Amino acid sequence: MTATAQLHANGSHPAYAPTTPVEAGPREPAYRLVRRNGTVTPFDPSKIALALTKAFLAVEGQSAAASRRIHDIVAGLTEQIVAGLARRADAGRLFHIEDVQDQVELALMRGEHHKVARAYVLYREERSRERARALAATAPAAAPASVLHVTAADG
């Protein structure tokens, strides 16, 4: 079975349907996520499960996609991460993407999945470099500073 067979067509993990963001009380709004570009979107725990699954597959190979062990580990880690985020949520029920990713790293390390944590950290670092390169490529060239030439009265 391939990795995509374990995921829904929209890329979400079957155990974490996007229709059920973190359970909120009847009057409480669902949690929301602040992305790097500043946009606010609904928080979707299935994206955490997907990122974890991809990290495990990167380390253990595509055959791990069919592994019940990997599925159970991902489900448990996702629950831990979501619970930890919910405890730390601010009054506006917002999570910042960097905080979510930091919690994923911590959960992997605490679960003693060190190789997977390393792969996840390296992936984040590479994506950060890609974003920086893209930003540098789209940034307008700096306009030359105005130059003032002063000539003394004697020449």
Automatic annotation (TrEMBL):
GO MF term set: ATP binding; ribonucleoside-diphosphate reductase activity, thioredoxin disulfide as acceptor
EC number: 1.17.4.1
PROSITE patterns: ATP_CONE (PS51161)
Domain of life: Bacteria
Disordered: region residues: 1-25
One Pfam family cited in the UniProt record for this chain: ATP-cone
Swiss-Prot/TrEMBL keywords: ATP-binding, Nucleotide-binding, Oxidoreductase
Annotated InterPro entries: ATP-cone_dom (IPR005144)
Domain ATP-cone residues, every copy: 31-131
The keyword tRNA-binding appears for this protein: no
UniProt keyword Oxidoreductase, yes or no: yes
Name of the featured protein: Ribonucleoside-diphosphate reductase subunit alpha
